[in-house]
Write a structure and sequence with these properties.
The chain is of the alpha/beta class. The protein is built from 5 helices and 9 strands. It has one domain: Rossmann fold (3-Layer(aba) Sandwich), CATH 3.40.50.880.
């Protein structure tokens, strides 16, 4: 049975909806909690995994001095790219993927937090099974929680965008996908993130109202669950193809 390596950076930022999708796809996974105690990169045997999911986290890719393990994790991601492993990077994971591919990662114009729409790139999304099931004629309401952004790697192409952040999703090497927004969110995750940030993010200090974000979740989570399913269905196709090639 194909096995995924899941790299997690925060106890609050787990697989969410993707955990059930992994089970539906008859896959298994192993979670590696990133940190200084991990033996990077020699302790990560990529040949044991069909692909990688790299989750989000509160740190920034360019904070190597504060988090020395970031440089080592980037070596693992770079090696996974060299081996052409399927990769799904979410938020920080997308930024890791972009930087490992040689692109710039930097602070965005303003924080993007809560529910906001994205739209698909009119041409490129059709080339990629992760996004081709989404309706290109409509905007899709998804969950955001980030303040950084990235350039699209030279050898990659953009899949999704919005007015606040023009690079919301991209693909490189055909099977490595970076997604800036959070398709994996569950109701409990939204609540826990908002509660943990209630002292830092509120309507008076930053323009974001955590109570409003939680209330809007009852409206938008059904669509987000459908989006997560379609994204992972396409990603699973990459994993199956990689497993067939390796057999």
């Amino acid at each position: 049975m194909p096995k995924l390596l899941v790299i997690q950076h925060s106890p609050l930022e787990g697989l969410g909806l993707f955990e059930e999708e992994i089970k539906k796809a008859n896959l298994t996974y192993e979670t590696l909690m990133a940190g200084d105690d991990v033996v990077w990169p020699s302790g990560v045997k990529l040949e044991e995994y069909a692909g990688l999911i790299i989750l989000g986290g509160p740190m920034s890719v360019y904070e190597e001095n504060k988090f020395p393990w970031i440089k080592k994790e980037l070596l693992v991601v770079s090696e996974a790219l060299r081996q052409k492993k399927p990769i799904l990077g979410i938020c920080l994971g997308a930024q890791m993927l972009a930087k490992a591919a040689g692109a710039r990662v930097y602070p965005g114009p303003a924080k993007e937090i809560g529910w906001a729409p994205i739209r698909l790139d009119d041409w490129f999304y059709k080339r990629n099974p992760v996004f081709f099931q989404l309706d290109p004629k409509k905007e899709h309401m998804v969950f955001h929680w980030h303040g950084d952004t990235f350039d699209i790697p030279t050898q990659g192409y953009r899949l999704a965008l919005n007015d606040s952040y023009p690079n919301q999703a991209f693909c490189i090497q055909g099977n490595a996908i970076g997604i800036q927004f959070h398709p994996e969110m569950t109701e409990d995750m939204v609540k826990s993130w908002c509660e943990s940030a209630s002292g830092q993010i509120d309507a008076t200090s930053s323009g974001y109202d955590t109570k409003k974000i939680i209330a809007e979740s009852t409206i938008h989570l059904k669509e987000l669950k459908e989006i997560a399913h379609k994204i992972f269905y396409g990603f699973a196709a990459f994993l199956r193809e990689n497993t067939r090639r390796a057999a």
